[in-house]
Design brief:
InterPro entries: Aminoacid_DH-like_N_sf, Malic_enzyme_CS, Malic_N_dom, Malic_N_dom_sf, Malic_NAD-bd, Malic_OxRdtase, NAD(P)-bd_dom_sf
Strand content: 5-15%
Strand order of the largest sheet: 9-8-7-10-11-12-15
Low-confidence stretches: 594-603
Number of strands: 16
CATH class of the domain at 282-472: Alpha Beta
Binding site for (S)-malate: 423, 473
Protein name: Malic enzyme
Keywords: Metal-binding, NAD, Oxidoreductase
CATH superfamily of the domain at 282-472: NAD(P)-binding Rossmann-like Domain
Mean pLDDT: 93
CATH architecture of the domain at 282-472: 3-Layer(aba) Sandwich
Number of helices: 23
Radius of gyration: 25 Å
Structural class: alpha/beta
Pfam family, one: Malic_M
Helix content: 25-40%
Length: 603
């Protein structure tokens, strides 16, 4: 594939239309994933970089290579084997890896991410071939600064994803195998938003594990000791954060799959002083809010009209409540306390009130117990009493949204917004088929897992209509947020920036123009969505004075061009041979996965 056409923003350091400097030749070049083109090296570069005798004579295109790679991928026996194949491909040729994923994104998404990535993480120590990322362990806290410094110079790293491996993809404590969730999230950031892959850093904080299977596995690669908690844990996390901030002062830090006791606490601790994000706390809330805002566009309502019940008041449910509250407050220019009055949380004890034992995170949403004294606070009773127009399920209670509950909503709300988000599918509070059937096709539905379209006789003339169901997948929002923070060099990620990101997703909802379309864009359109998200994030960052990048365009058209010019694409760019003396770390092949591997990608 040829390089992009010249751009007026081609002078930018992250430009993707310029020629790439390379100080490597021969085997060293072929063994560097982000430079390697394999059989697609053109004749002039084969001569210039001493590759002629190292490659078969026929020069192929990237599309031909992708076709061959897809045939190899399809020959693998199961999804885990396909995941392992993709990992090996990434270790050999980064452009080809991302091109293959881009060409088959919908089919491969579940293999490169959840649920198959969860299987790969559980088998990390058994499938291990070579390390990727930075491994920091709590017994070597004094080495954190040194070990982290090996990953680049201050200007080399834009995006860090860090995990402690305690709550991975619903499969719990996976210890050092959590490094693969950091890797996977960065793959999505590149695939969905064009974050440069060799400027990303996956990190795992190995604090031990409470998983008995790992503690008793002699092949386990992490610390085989009980997970450290308390003050020593906090000090270790703080050491990492301070080291990362000192070494890579422009990097955006994404916390991923920390335990319930730590995720929100750490986010609240560091968010006021740096650009950071937690996908479990904020990402789920943002994508759900985007779907709600899209549904409100369909119904002709605003956030001020929201009356929302959240069934399941754990971290996901409260995270969603937080994002909706913040958006209501921002749009209505009211206090967070006033906005919270539009939201009701229900958990195992029923409606959360001042008489209920609640966590600090739940406390802003509790209701006055005197108003509910002696009353039934079950989900059905609450729906019948408060007449919500939005019902969110994060309870993992299968079938919790019964026909009477849905009918109670529909009697006071002509287009009820109902999102059963619990994963996996067997734990959904209701199926889209039931929700649409019980409301004669009027419900606006989004789910936490993929569902097939639902058909029914819901047209005004009684004819059959097929409705496509939106999946609340965080990948439509978190990559664009990260891209916006990276490009604007934001000092912080503010509430207004998050609300703006959500508006960028909602604005592109297919349901706004097609009543049978899903509330959220399909994953295949996610790069366009990411541009919309990044644009909004950057605009607010500039407005709030937290953007530090120079030369951010004021015109929306120019800003979109500025963003797209800096979004990495899986395309081979021309290489320019430079001398090793004075060459950048990038030109020397030392970014991303430093070092070399053989062509099998194995140790």
């Amino acid at each position: 594939m040829a390089s992009k056409k010249p751009s007026k923003f081609g002078h930018l350091p992250l430009s993707t239309s310029s020629i790439v400097d390379c100080a490597l030749t021969g085997e060293a070049l072929l063994n560097t994933p982000y430079f390697n083109k394999g059989s697609a090296f053109p004749i002039d570069e084969r001569h210039q970089f001493n590759l002629c005798g190292l490659l078969p004579r026929n020069v192929q295109t990237l599309s031909m290579q992708a076709k061959r790679a897809h045939e190899q991928y399809m020959s693998r026996s199961d999804d885990l084997a396909k995941n392992t194949f993709l990992t090996s491909l990434k270790e050999q040729n980064e452009v080809l890896y991302y091109r293959l994923l881009q060409d088959h994104l919908k089919d491969m998404f579940s293999v490169v991410y959840t649920p198959t990535e969860g299987d790969a993480i559980q088998n990390y120590s058994r499938l291990f071939r070579r390390p990727e990322g930075c491994f920091l362990n709590i017994n070597d806290e004094d080495r954190v600064m040194h070990d982290l410094s090996l990953c680049g110079n201050p200007e080399d790293i834009d995006y860090i994803v860090v995990t402690d491996g305690e709550e991975i993809l619903g499969i719990g404590d996976q210890g050092v195998g959590g490094i693969l969730i950091s890797v996977a999230k960065l793959v999505l950031a590149t695939l969905c938003a064009g974050v440069h892959p060799n400027r990303c850093l996956p990190v795992v904080l190995d604090c031990g594990t409470d998983n008995p299977g790992l503690l008793n596995d002699d092949l386990y690669l992490g610390l085989r000791e009980k997970r450290v908690r308390g003050q020593r844990y906090d000090a270790f996390v703080d050491t990492f954060v301070k080291a990362a901030r000192k070494l890579y002062p422009r990097a955006y830090i994404h916390f991923e799959d920390f335990g319930l006791r730590n995720a929100r606490r750490l986010l609240d601790l560091y968010r006021p002083s740096m650009a950071c994000f937690n996908d479990d706390v904020q990402g789920t809330g943002c994508v759900t809010l985007a779907a709600i805002m899209a549904a409100l566009r369909v119904t002709g309502q605003t956030l001020g009209d929201v009356r929302m019940v959240v069934f399941g008041a754990g971290s996901a449910g409260v995270g969603i409540a937080d994002q909706v509250r913040d958006a209501i407050a921002t749009e209505g220019n009211i206090s967070h306390e006033e906005a919270a009055k539009q939201i009701w949380l229900i958990d195992k004890p029923g409606l959360l009130t001042t008489a209920t034992d609640v966590s600090d995170a739940q406390r802003p949403f509790i209701r006055d117990a005197s108003e509910w004294h002696g009353a039934d606070t079950s989900l059905l009773a609450v729906v019948q009493r408060i007449h919500p127009n939005v019902l969110i399920g994060t309870s993992t209670v299968p079938g919790a949204f019964t026909q009477p509950i849905v009918h109670a909503m529909a009697t006071s709300c002509p287009r009820p917004i109902i999102f059963p988000l619990s994963n996996p599918t067997r734990l959904h509070e209701a199926t889209p088929g039931d929700l649409l059937g019980w409301t004669h096709g009027k419900a606006l539905v989004a789910t936490g897992s993929p569902f097939d379209p639902v058909s029914g006789p819901w047209a005004d003339d009684g004819s059959t209509v097929e409705v496509r169901i939106a999946e609340c997948n965080n990948s439509v929002v978190f990559p664009g947020i990260g891209l916006g923070c990276v490009l604007s060099r934001a000092r912080r990620l503010t509430d207004r920036m998050l609300v703006a990101a959500v508006q960028g997703v909602a604005r592109m909802s297919p349901a706004c123009t097609d009543p049978t379309a899903p509330l959220l864009s399909d994953v295949e359109a996610v790069r366009d969505v990411s541009v919309s998200v990044a644009r909004n994030v950057i605009r607010v960052a500039v407005d709030e004075g937290v953007a530090t990048a120079e030369g951010i365009p004021g015109d929306d058209g120019d800003l979109d061009d500025w963003i797209r010019e800096q979004m990495w694409e899986p395309a081979y760019r021309p290489l320019r041979l430079v001398g090793t003396e004075g060459a950048t770390r990038a030109a020397r092949g030392e970014l991303g996965k430093a070092g070399t591997v053989n062509r099998a990608g194995e140790l």
